[in-house]
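ENTRY TYPE: paired fold submission
RECORD: A
CONTENT: sequence, then structure tokens
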Amino acid sequence: MRSVHVVVEGRVQGVGYRYSLLLEADRRGVAGWVRNRSDGTVEAALEGTDDAVDAVLAWMAEGPPGARVDTARVTDAARIGSTGFEVRDTQ
């Protein structure tokens, strides 16, 4: 089981990034959450098998059509213990 925290910079707000990430995480069986931050970045916590988390991270590095990902900073994180994936309010 792998748990990570991710902050994505670029044109990632207003392009369907969070909703698309929700669909991708659900498709891969990855739990966690995603939210916009007031500084224009997107923040997420992911938890799942190594392969599933790696696949979602690869998707996050590209994002949905219309997005432009400049950087995606990934750090290991404590387990979140969630069973689903949710879109949270802006921080």
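RECORD: B
CONTENT: sequence, then structure tokens
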Amino acid sequence: MASISLTGSFQPMRDTLERIAGIGRNPENVLKAVGHIVLTSTRHRIEQEVDPQGQPFKPLNPQYALTKEGPGILRGPNFNAGLYGSLTAQASGPVLRWGSNKVYAAVHQFGAVIKPKNAKQLSFEMGGSLFHRGSVTVPARPYLAFTSEDREDVLTELEGFLRRAMRPR
């Protein structure tokens, strides 16, 4: 049998493997970078008014659009207000959460039928007119998702973390 024996210090290799393993043991820094990626792509979709599959958002009710504050759909008077401005990404240990804490965020993501709780009808003003309705349907306008483009960007970011971990020190 042919064999090769290696002698000497394997400490540089051990150190490198330890740095790589450290990424898995404490992924918070990687997840913070991933959070930035998904937050950026979520904001970009809202700016483009498309869902995660690239389909246009359902249009606003024309009456509502007459007096809506701010540009476009899911955006308030400026980019720091409303749903768009509320988007955050937070990494803690092995968990990444991103989205909005606005009470209406899920309504926009999944759609909803809004019904009165303590009255026979909803009463609201829209486009300068007063309306009374038994219910109002808000169409789903999904904005949160982990897309194939996000996956590619995340893999590129992870490769960067691994490349840095493998650099000789």
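NOTES ON RECORD B: The chain has a mean pLDDT of 92. Helices lie at 11-25, 28-48, 62-67, 82-86, 105-110, 148-166.
STATUS: closed
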